[in-house]
Specification:
single chain, alpha/beta, Rossmann fold, 2 domains, 6-stranded mixed sheet, 3-stranded antiparallel sheet, 11 strands
Length: 334
């Protein structure tokens, strides 16, 4: 049991004053009649001598009950799991040409990734989220923000071709780290999604992972694409679409460097995931969010039963009894 306002319990210190008033001061100040001989009153006076003790007891009960009610006693009946806030997340999104691969329905890898990431952001609450996109280079599309609507709007406008083709995973990592390194959040996270092999940029992926580890940033890596790769549609000069081919004329198939992505995750305390369709990708983002939330769950007493409402009626009843006694059978004669 605990008291919401324990200072009201100091009212109990008035009990000695109430005792003094009841047995010493009141008889002197309020005596109404004087008798020269108590024998004429018979045994009645003996019965009336005890009323002061009874009134003192009733008044003490009233004072105690009122003090307890004002202090608001509460009975803790259980735990409530409270999830602390304070997660800063940078989303790294590959927008290289290979993200046009159509093994993700209904359209292509980038289309599905944008939908899943948008849904992921919509499930965030009081956490800041930012977005970095990359191909041959990397740039911040949206810095860390609590305005998730703005971020989702910027995400919707992303298209392949905004950056020259290529895959600069190391640059994307370094860019995300730069946005998170000064964060004071309890958890700093990078979620990096790619379908390729690092082939561009001045920073290699392992160096980028080392920067994240030094800054205390956990990195989850997601490799997208079906096993064995998929052909990549490319636009022709006439505006039509065809499939990319190797120099020997064979059909080009996407490649994924899973070993590097696994190493990045392992170095930073994160996890590597492989997504082969939209449902799997959505489940991965949900799982990441759940793990980050679980890492900061705190159990606290929250379910409380208020007892003041049960005490107050008894205080009112005791007060009514006192008033009834002093105005009827123990009424003073003026």
């Amino acid at each position: 049991m605990r008291f919401e306002h324990p200072l009201f319990l100091f009212l109990l210190a008035a009990i000695p004053l109430l005792y003094r008033f009841s047995f010493r001061e009141a008889p002197r100040r309020f005596a109404a009649l004087k008798y020269t001989d108590l024998k004429s009153l018979g045994g009645g006076i003996k019965k009336r001598r005890g009323y002061r003790g009874t009134l003192f007891a009733v008044r003490t009960i009233v004072l105690v009950l009122i003090a307890l009610a004002l202090a608001r006693p509460q009975l803790e009946t259980g735990y409530e799991t409270v999830k602390s806030e304070g997660i800063d997340i940078m989303l790294g999104l590959d927008i290289s040409g290979s993200m046009r691969a159509e093994d993700f329905k209904p359209k292509n890898r980038l289309y599905v990734a944008k939908q899943v990431v948008s849904d992921f952001v919509s499930r965030m609450s009081n956490d800041r989220v930012g977005l970095v996109v990359f191909a041959s280079k990397s740039f911040t599309r949206c810095p860390l923000t609590l305005d998730h609507g703005v971020l989702r709007s910027m995400l919707e406008d992303i298209e392949i071709g905004m950056i020259d083709d290529g895959t600069a995973i190391g640059l994307a990592m370094a860019n995300c780290v730069a946005r998170l390194k000064d964060s004071r959040a309890k958890s700093k996270v990078i979620i990096l999604l790619t379908d390729g092999v690092n082939n561009q940029g001045e920073i290699d992926p392992i160096t980028g992972a080392s920067l994240a580890r030094a800054a205390g940033i956990r990195t989850y890596t997601i490799g997208v694409g079906k096993e064995g790769g998929a052909p990549v549609p490319v636009p022709t000069q006439s505006g039509r679409m065809t499939y990319a081919r190797n120099r020997d004329g064979s059909l080009y198939m996407t490649e994924l460097d899973e070993d590097t992505l696994k190493e990045i995750a392992a170095m930073t305390g994160g996890t590597y995931y492989r997504a082969t369709d939209e449902q799997a990708l959505d489940e991965i983002y949900r799982k990441i969010l759940e793990m980050e939330r679980t890492a900061f769950e705190v159990k606290q007493f929250r379910h409380k039963k208020e007892l003041a409402g049960r005490i107050l009626p008894f205080a009112i009843l005791a007060l009514f009894v006192e008033i009834l006694l002093v105005t009827t059978i123990w009424r003073k004669i003026p």
